[in-house]
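Hi L.,

You mentioned the student needs an example of a multi-chain input paired with its predicted structure. This one should do, with 224 residues in total across all chains.
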Amino acid sequence: DAGVIQSPRHEVTEMGQEVTLRCKPISGHDYLFWYRQTMMRGLELLIYFNNNVPIDDSGMPEDRFSAKMPNASFSTLKIQPSEPRDSAVYFCASRPSITGRQFFGPGTRLTVL
Amino acid sequence: GESVGLHLPTLSVQEGDNSIINCAYSNSASDYFIWYKQESGKGPQFIIDIRSNMDKRQGQRVTVLLNKTVKHLSLQIAATQPGDSAVYFCAENVGSYIPTFGRGTSLIVHP
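Structure written out for the whole complex:
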């Protein structure tokens, strides 16, 4: 199994641009999570899905952030427009319903200039 | 200079020593706990978990201890190796397996 796949691994963009981060969870996992990690705030849960349905998006910082999961094998996190304070590492994680153990992807390092 | 922020606690040990990483959790209703290891440039990786009906669980070179009275969790690593150098996070869960992560502790192993 390839594990959770995220793309791109690095993204550098200018303020105001749209950014789309992508995630392919592990096949068979019912849950998908998006996290943001910064030195200031640590690892923050942004949103999670169960069976492709968003369950809790209370961690999404602003309306500029949106996430979708059109099918069981793909999810996107979009930031529009991006701002310098969005610079962080964004992780996607998935897990099956029977365990709390999450499997994290390698992350996308986002830099907004 | 760098803006004010929360610096990670750091534990420095010599190779071969035992390491103990501590975590205070906040919710007395938490019933499931996980330790993750995050190496530089990678995502967190599961190490070991424990449920609240246990006070100790052992894995390969690692032991997790849970003290519910004082809401404290610890991760013990035996015979620490340079490859153990990483940031270690504890995560607490209440019922639904939606974790809240701690700030993390940086472990530095000196050869």
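You could point out the following to them. The mean pLDDT of chain A is 95. The radius of gyration of chain A is 13 Å.

Best wishes,
N.
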